[in-house]
Amino acid sequence: MDAMKRCTACAEEMRTEALKCPHCGTRTEPLHRGVEGRTLFGVCAALAHYLGLDPALVRVGFLVSLVLSFGTTMLVYLLLWAFTPSSALGKAPMQRTVDWLGSIGNAEESRVETRV
Predict the structure, then answer these.
(1) Domain boundary assignment for the chain
(2) Please, which residues have CB within 8 angstroms of residue 90's CB and are 6 or more apart in sequence?
(3) pLDDT digits (tens, 9 = 90+) for 20-41
(4) Torsion of CA 41, 89, 30, 58, to 10 degrees
(5) How far apart are alpha carbons 108 and 26 in whole angstroms?
(6) Mind telling me which InterPro entries this protein's record contains (predicted)?
């Protein structure tokens, strides 16, 4: 018997290895770069895993697009890296930077006690 899990959107049962719910089509796992087969930053491997494609096919598509777009695709790649978390439960590099900058502005002033 196959192991089953419940969809978070429609509460129907599905197999644990399913990437999408067969009933409502909701993805069971968010897009993240912590997948097997990553080479440089993991963006192509993450897209391949998310779309259910072969990572080599996505990498070839990226290279063809890079040549045809005269480098504009590199900007898209870097943006995907910046806004995609490195693990399913982690934060994206851009989100970590925004959180860090926010913590600087909200830092309480250190209080110095003066004793007389």
Answers:
(1) 1-29, 31-105
(2) 32, 34
(3) 788 887 777 777 777 777 778 8
(4) 10
(5) 42
(6) Phageshock_PspC_N, PspC
